[in-house]
What does this fold into?
Amino acid sequence: MKITSICCIGAGYVGGPTMAIIAQKCPDIKVTVVDLNIERIAAWNDPDVNNIPIYEPGLSDLVAEARGRNLFFSTEVDKAIDESQMIFISVNTPTKTYGLGKGMAADLKYIELCARQIASVAKDNKIVVEKSTLPVRTAEAIKNILDNTGNGVQFQILSNPEFLAEGTAVQDLQNPDRVLIGGNNSPEGMEAINALVEIYANWVAKENILTTNLWSSELSKLTANAFLAQRVSSINAMSELCEKTGADVNEVAKAIGMDSRIGSKFLKASVGFGGSCFQKDILNLVYIAKSYGLNEVADYWEQVVIMNDHQKRRFANNIVQTLYNTVADKKITFLGWAFKKDTNDTRESAAINVADYLLFEQANIAVFDPKVRKKQIIADLSYLNEIDVNDFKKNIDAFEDPYEACKNAHAIAIMTEWDEFKSYDWKRIYDAMQKPAFIFDGRNILDAEKIKAIGFIFSAVGSSN
Ligand code: UDX
Ligand code: ADP
It folds into this structure.
């Protein structure tokens, strides 16, 4: 079966970039991305491509090339479903915040709504592709809904997890390590798998396109994220030991990373991992393991999240203790709010928790992030535990200029590894700060010796300097 029209439900960090690449690489396929969020779709359609709602290096060029040719953004979900042979589901699957599985299980209400909508609209056979990260066996739930509420048409369900990382989405999509496609091994299932293989084969070598059964594909995504997050928690655990013993975590990471069995990636000690996937997927894995009575498996993986929470708390505590055990009414400047560089995404960013702890200690927080605005920062803090953001709004401010943000600060905390921070005029920043002036480098990006030579009292995660 040759696919000529596809749609994607969900115009977010996954759906948007993925569909932009498919549209670019497959000019013969009409790609429509739909979302209920009118504002978001309007931003995707903004004549100035610099205003698209997601910041990713290279993405606006892709959109400029394909939009209006074979890439369309729309709020007409039913129409797009009706007109497509293949439907990607790329809606959000946050951790449940209520009821059974609260704080652990994935909330599948958006997925279920999509499945019901597809079932009620479809008038001919469709291939439905899970693109969101989902708990194992979600495909089965989707299939049940489609088969039992539909108009008698046939649905094939595929799992095609996305492995792109934010900030490098375009290059990850252009050159994926592998593409994974799970499906049924019935003749119809194989036909659906092949149809999706043929799409990717337009730019990915066939040997890098793996096909598996549905459950292997679904579980591989959770496993990949759990392994990656585990590496970060492992190096962060060592960072605490390094600080106590006089070892330097960067040196340790380099030494172990040169062992080809270990490898050098994902060994950067930090204030803690963030992002929409790692914590959510691990908690989801923990929930699945517990639901099968596998308590040791669940506890093993849960420790990765516990370690991450500890790292964020420890970073905040270190600031308080170093500033003579009180930060009340002191200005502390956060450089960076996004969960990593080169993205405007702030979901689960370590900065949010650290700000929460410091606001609870009555600090004044000033934030500068090249891509995040104040409205988002306040929204992020509204979900937190320690504080009610309404009581603390006067204690948090965001700046458009880093030098303004740092003026009169007692301390600077580097929360995101934005490249531009490295080339700031640190002497100028130092001169405008309260003395003694402190820097807490949560990302290990500054040159300790140079910074100390200016006069700063400097500390970085994982070293005892
Ligand atoms: C992750 C996976 O990498 C990706 O394959 C999956 O599809 C979605 O989840 P993402 O969350 O976009 O991608 O970013 P990633 O680069 O994995 O970083 C996650 C967090 O870990 C960030 O906060 C990052 O700063 C942190 N991190 C990463 C470290 O602290 N140290 C490291 O060495 C690597
Ligand atoms: P991700 O990082 O997984 O892409 P996002 O939250 O950025 O997650 O994007 C998910 C998008 O899915 C949101 O823009 C949301 O409005 C959209 N969405 C959720 N449910 C539906 C639905 N039933 N129909 C259309 N769009 C939906």
In short: The mean pLDDT is 95.
